[in-house]
Design a protein that fits this description.
hydrolase, 3-stranded antiparallel beta sheet, endonuclease, 210 residues, RNaseH_domain, magnesium, 7 helices, 34% helix, alpha/beta, cytoplasm
Length: 210
């Protein structure tokens, strides 16, 4: 589902905050020097309309900005902990994943690249790898992931990808089978936690390719 946006028109046939692109477009079409921009929240848009277009020109206004109260409610990441993430060039495409120490971003493990993979598969494998890593080291720390899909797959003990197996990605599917086998045969008490990107920024294990 597409995220709802709010549109501010500073200069147009009508000015104000609009809740649909079509309505906004009517105000700026054919209007010389129209000034407008989209925002991720109603609060941000209502604040912007009281200011000047120049204050927002060239800036990324599509990100949700949390209030002080929301940030306080979310709190800060638990440390020590580890964080995992995956990167995929294409869908499917070359995929790799890794795990890092959350606070220092020191890399603990990395795998790939694998041919014809997906980001969700990478996120799943990263979580299972992290669980195995901590169990092997006899360390009980939380694991952070920014993928609710991967978290749900781990909880169900199964990688529920729709990706079809091919000669190119067979090694990747072999890894998936091993990961599912590990989940079936092992117990763990490791908390798997959602990384709150809106509050904390990109997860420390992020590959920085966005």
């Amino acid at each position: 589902m597409a995220k709802k946006k709010f549109y501010v028109v500073w200069k147009g046939k009508k000015t104000g905050v609009f809740t649909s692109w079509n309505t906004c477009k009517k105000q700026i079409d054919g209007f010389a020097g129209a000034q407008y921009k989209s925002f991720a929240s109603k609060e941000a848009a209502e604040k912007a309309i009281k200011g000047n277009y120049e204050d927002y020109k060239g800036k990324d206004t599509k990100k949700v900005i949390l209030s002080a109260a929301e940030l306080k409610q979310i709190g800060k990441p638990i440390v020590p902990s580890i964080s995992v993430d995956a990167a995929c060039s294409g869908n499917p495409g070359k995929m790799e994943y890794r795990g890092v120490e959350t606070n220092s971003k020191s890399q603990l493990f990395i795998q790939g690249p694998f041919e014809k993979g997906t980001n969700n598969i990478g996120e799943f494998l990263a979580l299972v790898h992290g669980l195995g890593y901590l169990k092997q080291k006899k360390i009980n720390l939380p694991i952070y992931s920014d993928s609710r899909i991967a978290m749900s797959w781990v909880k169900k003990g199964q990688c529920r990808t729709n990706l079809q197996i091919t000669d190119e990605n067979k090694p990747l599917f072999d890894m998936i089978k091993r990961a599912e086998k590990w989940l079936k045969e092992n117990t763990y008490t490791t908390p798997i936690l959602k990384w709150e990107t809106k509050a904390w920024g990109e997860i420390p294990a992020d590959f920085g390719r966005k």
